[in-house]
Write a structure and sequence with these properties.
The chain is α+β, with helices and mostly antiparallel strands and 121 residues long. The chain folds into two domains: 85 residues, Alpha-Beta Plaits (2-Layer Sandwich); 35 residues. The chain contains four helices and four strands; from the N terminus they run ββαββααα. The protein has a four-stranded antiparallel beta sheet. A hairpin with a 4-residue loop joins strand 1 and strand 2. Helix 3 runs antiparallel to helix 4. The radius of gyration is 18 Å and the shape is elongated.
Length: 121
């Protein structure tokens, strides 16, 4: 059992983007900053939703206090999240699947650059 305790500090409903924006406090005395995965799992469990709809934007730790604040976006549908969230956030939250998405995006970008170079010549 970890020495972390979580608490939802604030919830904001963003109907335009079909998501909820949460501010989650993590108290972790004498322990390291909680991982994105542990925050995602806790939020998904608390809200009773699938973990694929939860994305941690950032975790900010207060030096020497054993307390962190995490900004979390919870989407109604994971397909909407993949369109709205930046690729680097997807890569950080989805692990291997996110890294594959990032690599595919880099390949597409490089292909576009090559195409532009060929047109200029």
């Amino acid at each position: 059992m970890s020495a972390e305790s979580f608490n939802i500090v604030h919830i904001r409903e963003n109907k335009l983007l079909a998501r909820r924006e949460l501010l989650v406090e993590a108290v972790h005395q004498n322990a390291s900053t909680p991982t994105r995965q542990s925050v995602r799992e806790w939020v998904a469990k608390q809200l009773g939703i699938d973990i694929s709809n939860v994305f941690v934007r950032r975790i900010k730790t207060e030096f020497g206090r054993g307390r962190s604040l995490a900004e979390v976006h919870v989407y109604n549908d994971s397909k909407i999240a993949r369109v709205i969230e930046p690729l680097y956030i997807l890569a950080r939250n989805l692990g291997e699947e996110g890294k594959k998405l990032l690599e595919e995006a880099k390949k597409r970008r490089n292909e576009r650059r090559e195409k532009k170079k060929r047109k200029k010549k």
